[in-house]
Design goal:
about 350 residues; mainly alpha; 10 helices
Length: about 350
């Protein structure tokens, strides 16, 4: 791989070669064939990430992705630990939150693994590259599907409020989560089964080593799932308003409290949909229209917010939950603050 100066035996050749092309001796294993999610160029090369010239320089964008992945893994590991060591958190809702935390944990580990494959593995391995890409595909697919499952669960808890707890058993939820994970693991195996552009670099998408056509399929699927989530949340909003009005008519004296609860639910909906859309929609649309010829800096600048969604999910879905908050307080200081609100969750707290 490394052609040493002077190996050809002529004394006047080595020095000009060493001065004219320092990248020739250091870049081959970090060029366009190196592992790259989401990069489309060599680390620090081309229009990619501001990593500077050759010499094996580490791109600041890749460092940022690796640091984000580490934070994502640590935060979601905390959520899983709380759910695992708290026997009272065994309801179907917490199982779905655990599925989301596991998916985001694997996504964080995938970002770290991708960094290691790109910069630490010498010589580069196609199997390692495809494995890291597959882990990221499976993890982020499971994260999005878990968000959809939580949305469906919230919708059913309002739409079938009377029969929800008898129909939505823990066993049924476990079976659905297992089926979802098998599907997402199948998506993660696609790069190893031929959904890659390692043999045809011109077919690469911004999600290297996924091909342009396959990236377009993934992007369209994601946009359809987001549209379904938005429709479900609109229905949740309508049901919550109707419940609030019915309670207000029957109990005039709690109308103000119920209106406050409804407003809180609407703010939660706005936070959920707004965060998800801001983090993922730009990257999904870009993956749909762009290809490997686009400067990698565009890919990095859109992929980083998308990965940050896995950093925000625990805050929205786990740490804001009163039961998980209680468990965290007990684990950290052995007590529950006297100011902690124990108000039961109503149908308007969507």
């Amino acid at each position: 791989m490394l052609h040493g100066p002077g190996a050809m035996g002529e004394p006047w050749q080595p020095q000009p070669q060493r001065l004219a092309g320092p990248g020739n001796a250091s870049v081959p294993s970090a060029g366009p064939s190196a592992a790259g999610w989401p990069g489309t160029a060599a680390p620090g090369g081309g229009g990619g990430g501001g990593g500077g010239g050759g010499g094996g320089a580490v791109s600041p964008w890749d460092i940022a992705l690796c640091a984000t992945g580490t934070a994502v893994a640590g935060e979601n590991a905390l959520v899983l630990a709380v759910l695992f060591y708290t026997p009272s958190l065994r309801a179907p809702m917490f199982l779905l939150i655990g599925s989301l935390a596991l998916a985001d944990l694997l996504a964080g580990l995938g970002l770290v693994a991708n960094f290691a494959v790109r910069y630490l593995l010498r010589p580069p391995s196609e199997a390692a590259e495809l494995g890291a890409a597959g882990l990221l595909l499976a993890a982020f697919s499971a994260s999005v599907c878990s968000l959809l499952a939580i949305t469906v669960d919230r919708y059913l808890s309002l739409y079938n409020a009377l029969t929800y707890h008898s129909e939505r058993t823990l066993g049924f939820t476990c079976a659905m989560v297992l089926l979802m994970w098998l599907l997402c693991l199948g998506v993660g195996l696609l790069p190893l089964l031929g959904w890659n552009c390692l043999r045809d670099q011109s077919a690469c998408s911004v999600l290297r080593p996924v091909t342009k056509d396959n990236a377009a399929v993934l992007a369209v699927t994601f946009l359809l799932l987001f549209a379904l989530m938005m429709q479900l949340y609109l229905q949740i909003c309508k049901i919550a308003f109707r419940h609030a009005q019915q309670i207000a008519v029957q109990h005039q004296f709690i109308a103000t409290a119920q209106a406050t609860s409804t407003r809180k639910g609407l703010s939660t909906l706005s936070l959920i949909l707004g965060t998800f859309a801001l983090c993922w929609i730009p990257f999904a649309i870009y993956s749909l229209v762009a290809d490997s010829s686009y400067p990698a800096v565009y890919t990095y600048s859109l992929a980083l917010p998308a990965t940050c969604n896995s950093l925000i999910n625990p805050i929205i879905y786990a740490f804001r939950n009163p039961d998980i908050q209680k468990s965290l307080w007990l684990a950290c200081c052995g007590c529950i603050p006297s100011t902690f609100s124990s108000r039961p969750r109503t149908s308007s707290d969507v």
